[in-house]
Write a structure and sequence with these properties.
Its cofactor is heme. By secondary structure, the chain is of the alpha+beta class. The protein has 14 helices and twelve strands. The protein has one domain: Cytochrome p450. A hairpin with a 3-residue loop joins strand 10 and strand 11.
């Protein structure tokens, strides 16, 4: 008879949910899960958000999750996310439906399509800095980055230009985001209207939160790492000096920002925007010598492999050169963008947005942190006080 993983389901309904939520808000979730791993090993059972759950850890678990074809496990988000995003968004689909919808999204998220957006994205970033940074002595980075990424998505993906309509929409959008914390067809290449609506909301939320968090924490790390800041500045100044006054960046310029992107990757390794996720067993599954019963929830914190000292030397040290040779990073150990068929379709969009923003910030401003380096998760990382910084302009936009 196959045995269940070790562990306890805890108090009915509540289970271990409160413990995990408290740990996330105190930024000790990794430690909380490490204690489970020490006690039970990389596979254990618990109860989260009213459902019996199996927690999986390690790069083998990441591979198992990300390479699933949908016949054994399916994606499953928490109830609040399901209610807001709907049941036909990419996070809820598997198998042929997942492939079809992903292919449709990639029509405008692939590099060939994104090349034509570089100028438009840069225009939004310039306007944002003129409105919210120039003439200011202090700004709070995270809320401003959320405004920027929202405006970029509105302009590039949905053709919604600046004005009262967009300003009203961002208020509604922020209210929707607040409800998403952890709480309890005929043509195969065409999405239905319902799928279009659900995936528009998914793209907006994914592009809004993950990119804004990434850019915010890059600024924090650059403030704390002077030698890395100088290397990024040198790379960006060389590009800036090759341009005529007012001339826009090109796709070729972005390709030269190799070190800056390694800084972004190292930021994602240490402070991944997405901590983990949920799946659901569609049938009885044997994994690692244990039974995962049909209908049970599967929880994994994929990003924990990114701080594993058996995978990364001195994992707490900020070292962008880890990513100088991408092939040296073992498969399914760095999964900030997912993996396999579940690779984030918007990763190239995020890369362009991040590189252009960092280019303008380092070449036009210097900054000094006005708060400590602590942060919490709710569920995305939030730096202390939203990362207030004292800023000094260097030259005109």
């Amino acid at each position: 008879m196959r045995k269940l993983p070790p562990g306890s389901l805890g108090i009915p309904i509540i289970g271990q949910s409160l413990g995990l939520l408290r740990a996330m808000r105190a930024n000790t979730a990794e430690k909380w899960l490490e204690e489970r791993i020490k006690k039970y090993g990389p596979i254990s059972k618990l109860s989260l958000f009213g459902k019996p759950t199996v927690f999986l850890h390690g790069h083998a678990a990441n591979k198992f999750i990300f390479t699933s074809d949908g016949s054994a496990i399916t994606t499953q988000q928490t109830k609040s996310i399901q209610m807001i995003l709907g049941d036909r968004n990419l996070l809820e689909l598997s198998g042929d439906d997942h492939r079809r919808v992903r292919n449709a999204l990639m029509l405008f998220l692939k590099p060939e399509s994104l090349k034509q957006y570089v100028g438009k994205m840069e225009e939004e970033i310039r306007k944002h800095l003129e409105m919210h940074w120039l003439g200011k002595q202090q700004v709070t980075v995270l809320p401003l980055m959320k405004v920027l990424t929202f405006n970029i998505i509105c302009s590039l993906l949905f053709g919604l230009e600046r004005g009262a309509r967009r300003d009203k929409l961002i208020d509604c959008f922020q209210q929707m985001i607040e409800g998403m914390c952890f709480r309890n067809e005929e043509d195969e290449d065409v999405m239905t209207e319902k799928e279009i609506l659900h995936n528009v909301m998914l793209v907006m939320i994914a592009g809004h939160d993950t990119s804004s968090v990434l850019i915010t924490f890059i600024l924090r790390f650059l403030a704390n790492e002077p030698s890395i800041y100088e290397a990024v500045l040198q790379e960006q100044e060389e590009i800036s000096q090759s341009k005529k006054s007012g001339e826009f960046l090109t796709w070729e310029d972005l390709a030269k920002m190799k070190y800056t992107w390694r800084v972004a990757m190292e930021t994602l390794r240490i402070v991944p925007p997405v901590f983990g996720g949920f799946r659901k067993a569609l049938k009885d599954i044997e994994y690692g010598g244990y039974l995962i019963p049909k209908g049970w929830q599967i929880f994994w914190a994929s990003s924990m492999t990114q701080m594993d000292n058996t995978i990364y030397s001195k994992p707490t040290k900020f070292d962008p050169n880890r990513f100088e040779d991408q092939a040296s990073v073992a498969p399914y150990c760095f999964v900030a963008f997912g993996g396999g068929t579940h690779m984030c379709p918007g990763n190239e969009f995020a890369r362009i947005e991040t590189l252009i923003t960092i280019h303008y910030l380092v070449t036009r401003f210097t900054w000094k942190l006005c708060a400590d380096n602590s942060f919490s998760r709710d569920p995305m990382p939030v730096p202390a006080q939203g990362l207030p910084v004292e800023i000094m302009p260097k030259k005109p936009l």
